[in-house]
Amino acid sequence: MPAHLIKAFSALTAVWVVYAAGFSRADSLTLTMTFLALMLALTFLLIGPSPNSQRDTILPTDWVLALASLAAGVYFVSQADDIARRITLLDPLSVWDITFASLILFLTIEAMRRTVGMGLTLIVLIFLAYNLWGDRLGGTLGHGEITYDHFIDITVFTTDGLFGVPLRVAATYAFLFVLFGTALSKAGGAQFFYNLAAYLTGGAVGGPAKIAVVSSGLYGTISGSPTSDVVTTGSVTIPMMKTMGYRSSFAAATEVAASTGGSLLPPVMGAAAFIMAEYTGIAYAEIALAALIPALLYYVPIYIQVHLRATRDGLKGVDLSEIPPLRKIMKDGGLFIVPLVIISWSLIAGYTPTYSALYGLAGVVAVSMVRRSTRMSPSAIYDVLAETSFRMVAVAGACAAAGLVIGGITMTGLASKFSTLVFMISGQNVLMSLIVAAILTTLLGMGMPTPSAYILAAVLISPVMQSLGIDQMAGHLFILYFAVMSALTPPVAVAAYAASAIADENPLVIAAQAVKIAIGAFLIPFAFIYQPGLLLNGSVVEIVVAVVTSIAGLALIALAVEGYYRTVYRWGPRLLMMGAGGLLLFGGWLFALVAVLVAAVGWGWNRMMVSRQLPGT
């Protein structure tokens, strides 16, 4: 009985979000407060207090926490008008205000611990401790005294803290896009994209791995989650790759790398991209358009490495008799392209992401009704609504954590101090500052969901970008890339852990291989800083040159990483090819000319070594 009640509660939560985000006239603060209360209640009913907790029965304490979450939500919603009118730090907080604020803070931290683990929870607790007792540090990191009332006032009773941008995004278009992706997958869209990828690449050399690359990218752009993409498409592609002769670690790493890139691929991208739009004030359509070329470039070295590995090891494609003909694929599922077209059109036409997601969702429902085989029954729609709320529990926990961190940084002025630290390390050199920013973003993102990793890096590191004179779009996309890469970066690579269960392989081995396969993701952000044409910023000639040189550079880097192109490449020539590829990514005719010369020397050197059968040192 509790399971049925929880599922009904989850489905009703999704219905409420659709109504509140698309049709209600309630203010965003009330919407966000209600959303957090519902998500907290769901968290305590769905996830036990420890990883080993059995959910056959719900503990009495979890029922109490769920009811406390709803009670706190009722209180804050009832006081929403007063909260909106009050003057921060001037109007005193009542005893009830402080009591319920402390309660919602405790519930949020406990829900965060259950959903995203102790790693992020400890980081948040460190920030909270710094807010309350950082005045005792002195020196550069010290700040003025912050009382508990002051801390609660900023953290809970303003939109700079818990109920800020990250949670507001989760309560609106992030939720709606997850609902869109879930509905599209349930109606048969995931199978269509897989079949289309199989037709396009399955029969080629290394066909199974190429299917994984293409299908995971296509599915990832509607799911927005590397982990769910790995579980969905990887359950088919990883065993297929292993059967065709790929090693377990390489098969899983290919899936992880391809799935992670889906969060960077327009038109949907992931929750962090929505937060970027809200945080920067840049229209989401502009972000999606600017991100298109870099996202496609992301897959260039992955596809090339997969091809080179298959060619070297003699791995064949899938039997063509196992792949449905294109006519049947398009007949059975071609209409699933329509919802993506609707979303793309509505974003370009200037509609908000919220309404774009709603239009796309309506398109999925309409398309699914055309054929009996794809038609969603009332029970299927019910499942989609409930599953979406289930999937949003962890996202809500991550976004609430990000809000707490933002509130603390706002209070203490830590962002400016962080910029000083970066410049002390880099000496205000642009390239060195970017390298330090990339490393810090990756470190901050380890063990964190992408939305939290992005918002933390955006608050701390975006001032560095501004100080360097880097364009806002380029600077935040730079941060977004490294935040997304936290899903596959060791030692805490959540997508790799998801793949390890399917591949029966060590997750750290998978993560290390995935970093190697997704090498382009760590280089492309530097490329679009130095070549704005990759973000469609410049003349047609500048854009074309940037794209061509970047493709050539990434191809050389893929060759260097894989160490093979028609023949095995020794370490010396591989390093030269890597250097030539890096020079091409920086752009400019001089760099391109030097890169061509370096690549030619590397090719000639390797040919000479192979012909003389010299050792590869």
TrEMBL record:
Keyword Magnesium on this protein? Answer: no
Instruction: Describe its function.
Output: Part of the tripartite ATP-independent periplasmic (TRAP) transport system.
Source organism per UniProt: Arenibacterium halophilum
Membrane topology type: Multi-pass membrane protein
Q: Which Pfam families match?
A: DctM
By its UniProt entry, which PANTHER family does this protein fall under? BLL3936 PROTEIN
Q: Which UniProt keywords apply?
A: Cell inner membrane, Cell membrane, Membrane, Transmembrane, Transmembrane helix, Transport
* Localization, UniProt: Cell inner membrane
Name of protein = TRAP transporter fused permease subunit
* Keyword field contains Oxidoreductase: no
InterPro entries hit by this protein: DctM, TRAP_DctM-Dct_fused
Q: Where are the transmembrane segments?
A: 30-47, 59-77, 89-109, 116-133, 165-184, 282-308, 329-348, 392-415, 421-446, 453-470, 476-498, 510-531, 543-561, 582-605
